[in-house]
């Protein structure tokens, strides 16, 4: 006969309970205080109450009938040995002090009782059960050094009574409590420390991922800044040449105009010098400046052909004439297509891909759509971090456009960027310089 498995709801509750037991709570908070379920938060009190409700009357009955202890004294001892279990839910160490003192006092009282001969002493069976329940609460909350002290104090109290033995009661119950309490403390402390280690590992992974994302963002911004330098430097160089050559190309210029053109040329050269100085800071150690011109949409066809050679059936739809495209938009569109196709090769090898570049209503639309992958991802790229999208967002943000990315219902992926063909130069400069604002 096959045993039925627990329902998913029960399994989820058990997992939540195990996680909560392995998660230490702050001092003064009850056990399982961080659990979202109200039933699980009440569970420690219910368990403690069950122990108290069962052990207290049994302890009174045994002390009175078997050990011959006075009824009032038996009730006081039973209350001191069991009731603090309710306190142990929130303050286990304080409860331990009370219960240990009550247990020691009970052992002294039983030493002088008439019915102790032939029965367990210095600890009764009820004391052993309640004490082990207390050790669970202590082990889940207190540090290792405190647990060692509790365990040694338990053993010292038991073996101290061996110096004053009661005839006929040497059954080794003090050794039994010493061993069992140590085992319970070891198990619960291991559970708590394992939960601590897992939580610290998750926190460290979260911090590492955030740092990795920030580093990727900064590297991409530095790359964009270097490329932006090449774009702006071209225009500044043109200004310098035109300003220097104006007195020779235009006849009859007054002296004031010649001086003005000379000032413009000097300012342009100074700006180029400052840009090169800043660019040297952005470049990596040991890297050399790129001497090839920055690519643009005229090279998108080469990207698609390279992607086809990599095993991805890709096609391009782009009109022969897009009209005037600002150089920053031209470069950003090329980089977006480049990154999108690289992601297809990495994460969706063999997926049919369509690249579309159109111009309408003063905006350049770049669309890269791939279908579901025909096989598993590239062995060189076993997992994706999504950091490739960071560069796309930064480039679109630089030009004041919009970016839409996300999975498709059939398992494919879509990258759609809309870039303005008429850039606001003031806004562009502000965006380029703002390198500390998070994406």
Give your account of this protein's structure.
The chain is of the alpha+beta class. The chain is built from twelve helices and five strands. The chain has helices at 8-21, 38-65, 71-82, 92-111, 125-139, 144-160, 173-249, 255-282, 300-309, 327-347, 388-399, 425-433, and strands spanning 314-317, 353-360, 363-370, 402-407, 413-420. It has a five-stranded mixed sheet, covered by helices on one side. Strand 4 and strand 5 form a beta hairpin. The longest helix has 77 residues, at 173-249. 26% of the residues are buried.
Number of helices: 12
Q: Mean pLDDT, nearest integer?
A: 80
Q: Which sequence of strands runs across the widest sheet? A: 1-2-3-5-4
Structural class: alpha+beta
Number of strands: 5
Q: Which shape, going by the Cα principal axes? A: elongated
Uncertain parts: 377-387, 425-439
The helicity comes to 55-70%
Radius of gyration: 39 Å
**How would you spell out the order of helices and strands?**
HHHHHHHHHEHEEHEEH
Q: Span from first to last CA? A: 59 Å
Instruction: Give the strand content.
Output: 5-15%
The major beta sheet can be summarized as: 5 strands, mixed
Q: What's the SSE blueprint?
A:
Layout: H1 8-21, H2 38-65, H3 71-82, H4 92-111, H5 125-139, H6 144-160, H7 173-249, H8 255-282, H9 300-309, E1 314-317, H10 327-347, E2 353-360, E3 363-370, H11 388-399, E4 402-407, E5 413-420, H12 425-433
Parallel strand pairs: 1-2
Antiparallel strand pairs: 2-3, 3-5, 4-5
């Amino acid at each position: 006969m096959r045993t039925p498995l627990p329902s998913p709801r029960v399994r989820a509750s058990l997992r939540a309970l195990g996680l909560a037991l392995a998660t230490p709570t702050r001092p003064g908070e009850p056990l399982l205080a961080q659990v979202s379920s109200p039933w699980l938060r009440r569970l420690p009190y219910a368990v403690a109450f069950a122990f108290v409700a069962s052990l207290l009357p049994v302890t009174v009955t045994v002390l009175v009938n078997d050990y011959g202890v006075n009824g009032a004294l038996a009730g006081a001892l039973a209350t001191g040995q069991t009731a603090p279990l309710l306190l142990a839910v929130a303050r286990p160490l304080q409860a331990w002090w009370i219960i240990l003192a009550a247990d020691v006092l009970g052992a002294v009282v039983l030493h002088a009782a008439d019915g102790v001969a032939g029965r367990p002493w210095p600890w009764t069976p009820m004391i052993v059960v309640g004490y082990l329940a207390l050790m669970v609460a202590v082990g889940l909350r207190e540090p290792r050094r405190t647990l060692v002290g509790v365990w040694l104090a338990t053993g010292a109290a038991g073996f101290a009574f061996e110096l004053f033995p009661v005839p006929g009661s040497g059954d080794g119950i003090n050794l039994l409590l010493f061993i069992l309490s140590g085992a319970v403390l070891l198990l619960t402390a291991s559970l708590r420390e394992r939960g601590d280690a897992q939580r610290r590992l998750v926190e460290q992974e979260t911090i590492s991922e955030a740092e990795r994302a920030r580093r990727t963002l900064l590297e991409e911004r530095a790359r964009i800044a270097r490329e932006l330098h090449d774009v702006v430097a071209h225009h500044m160089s043109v200004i310098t040449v035109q300003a220097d050559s104006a007195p020779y190309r235009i006849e009859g210029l007054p002296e004031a105009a010649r001086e003005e053109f000379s000032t413009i040329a000097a300012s342009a050269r100074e700006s180029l010098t400052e840009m090169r100085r800043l660019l040297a800071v952005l470049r990596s150690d040991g890297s050399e400046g790129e001497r090839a011109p920055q690519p643009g949409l005229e090279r998108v066809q080469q990207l698609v052909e390279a992607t086809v050679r990599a095993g991805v059936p890709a096609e391009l739809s782009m009109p022969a004439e897009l009209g005037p495209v600002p150089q920053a938009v031209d470069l950003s569109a090329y980089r977006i297509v480049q990154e999108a196709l690289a992601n297809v090769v990495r994460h969706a090898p063999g997926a049919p891909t369509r690249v579309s570049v159109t111009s309408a209503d003063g905006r350049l639309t770049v669309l890269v759509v791939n279908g579901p992958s025909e096989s598993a991802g590239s062995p060189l790229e076993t997992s994706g971090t999504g950091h490739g999208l960071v560069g796309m967002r930064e480039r679109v943000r630089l030009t004041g456009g919009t970016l839409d990315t996300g999975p498709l219902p059939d398992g494919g992926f879509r990258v759609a960027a809309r870039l303005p063909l008429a850039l606001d130069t003031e806004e562009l400069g502000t965006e380029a310089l703002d390198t500390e604002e998070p994406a």
